[in-house]
Amino acid sequence: MTAPHTAIRVSEIFGPTIQGEGMLIGLPTVFVRTGGCDYRCSWCDSLYAVDSRFRHEWEMMSTDALWQKVVALSGGRPVMVSLSGGNPAIQPLGALLDRGHRDGYRFALETQGSVARNWFAELDVLVLSPKPPSSEMATDWAAFDACVEAARGRPQIALKLVVFDDTDYAYARDAAARYPRLPVYLQPGNHTPPRPGDENAPIDMNGVMKRMEWLVEEVTRDRWFDARVLPQLHVLLWGNKRGV
Ligand code: SF4
């Protein structure tokens, strides 16, 4: 039997598909979405992996069992594995990184930066996505600093910021100024996220694209030439659909 502290709480594993956001956009990947999050963002688009009401859908998996599933999905060919959530940083993933690296796989993890882990140093890519004011969450910058510090060395680190409005944009500028050496990726927020179990809920693509246009105008007006503005590719392709 797997010791509880080594079991990983998994919401879903799927792929290969492509990474839809940020610095790895377009890259083939297998997703491992863990269950549970220490945040409750107002516009969270993966509540089924956050809210404990959906915990009956989550599975406690050993590192071995999880890894076998990733290998099966990828046909045994090394691919980028995207660790997402929920907040994957609250799961014990260090052994998984060792296991996958031995097989030639790479790992990218995305987190809001609220919990630092020493195994961040073993990642290949760490995407830190602090949540702006529209999320109704408050950023603990000391915890965020600890995440950046924990990942010094091997991983590429990037900032990814979701922007809904002027206040979020100002927050994004502040966050980028705090970490001038980190590349910055901005994306327009989706104000029509799916409700759990309703993945066919229509998405206001027009509204999202208008926000993207506005974001491009802001960035260029401010001569913020280090920032990259990207849409969510999977949203463009599949709307709110889950598991793609
Ligand atoms: S941090 Fe991410 S997963 Fe957690 S509630 Fe916010 S958007 Fe959802």
Question: What secondary-structure arrangement, pairings included, does this model have?
Answer:
Layout: E1 8-18, E2 28-34, E3 59-61, H1 63-73, E4 80-84, H2 94-102, E5 106-111, E6 125-128, H3 141-150, E7 156-163, H4 166-178, E8 184-188, H5 205-221, E9 227-229, H6 233-238
Parallel strand pairs: 2-4, 4-5, 5-6, 6-7, 7-8, 8-9
Antiparallel strand pairs: 1-2, 1-3
Helix pairs in contact: 1-2
Structure, described:
27% of the residues lie in helices and 21% in strands. The chain is α/β, with parallel strands linked by helices and 244 residues long. It has one domain: Aldolase class I (TIM Barrel, Alpha-Beta Barrel), CATH 3.20.20.70. The structure holds iron/sulfur cluster. Iron/sulfur cluster (SF4) binds next to loops.
